[in-house]
Every structure is written in structure tokens, then in C-alpha cells.
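=== RUN LOG ===
request id: a7f3
mode: sequence -> structure
chains: 1
length: 196
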Amino acid sequence: MKKSALSAKDLMTVGLFTAIIFVISMAASMLGFIPVLMPFLTVIVPLLTGIPFMLFLTKTKKFGMITLMGTLCGFILGLMGMGVYWVTATGFIAGLCADLISRSGNYASAKKGVLSHAVFCQWAFGSVIPIYFARDAYFAKLINGGYGEEYAAALMRYLPEWSLIPSVILGFAAGIAGALIGKAILKKHFIRAGIA
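=== RESULT ===
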């Protein structure tokens, strides 16, 4: 494992994969405009981002790359109006934890890579923290934002307070599944990168 600072090439790799993962996440999140589908995003997004994340791991050999990607994903989502402080914080924490997991396997362990993706997938949970911990304010924000009372009520109905922990667990499980799919599809890349 190389321990030097991130190079310009590393930063470009982070930028590219941040864009890919963010675009996939946002495209899937459009389903959230239908309230009944909102709870399923915690499963759909990790399944879809497994392939690009695992490809990213074949190019990641330095600590900080995954942390930076998680932070950037969170910050960009925050700039889009999803609560910049919460989602940037969860992006940083999830990215850092995922980075530490990958580093514990010297960025050469496929098993650690799979676990790393499952943890990394938690980066976007900051965007829904207000739904669970500031429900009245979030409800008012939706109505004032033009979504209407019917949509806001439906969203709250499909995301009850008790659903946070099951959502995190399902997101983690889907992150493992998505990473295993990515690992299987990218088998040759893993061999070339020396990841076993």
C-alpha cells in the first residue's frame, strides 16, 4: 500500500467516480418523487452503485480517496437542498469508515472491499435525518416548497419514525449485494489490480 499524499491522478479518479456514483444515486432517487417508492431507495441505490464503487477500488491504493469521495457526494447533495451540514457529515463519516475498512485489508482484500461499499452506502442518510428527527419542520418545508400537503402526508406515512433502523440495515445488506455483483462482473479487473 502506498502511503504518499494523493496525486493529481488520484484526485481525478476520485472526481470521476464521485460524478458516476452521484449521478446514478440521483437518477435512482427520482423514484422518491413517488412517496410509496421512497423507502426502497435505501435498497435500489446501493445495488446500482456496487459496480462503479468496486471498479473504483481497483484504482484505490491510498488512504483518503474513499473518504474524499464520500464527503464530496454528501456536500454536493447538500448543495442541492438536502441539508448540507447533515449530509456532508454523514458523507464524511461513511467515507472515512469505508476507507479505514479498505485500508485494513491494504486495499487488496475483496472481502474488505465488499464491506467497505456496504458502509459507504450510508453516506446519503444525512438527507433523511430531518424526516426522522425534525418531522414537523420537514413536513412544513415540503408544503412551503410546493410539494403540497397531500404529498407531504404520504411521504411521512411511508417513512414512519420507526423505519430508520430497518432502512439502515436494508441499505447495508443491499450494499453488500451490490458490491458482490460488482465484484463478480469486474473479476478480471480485480485480478489485474491484485485484489483477492
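=== NOTES ===
The two ends are 14 Å apart (CA to CA).
The mean pLDDT is 92.
=== END ===
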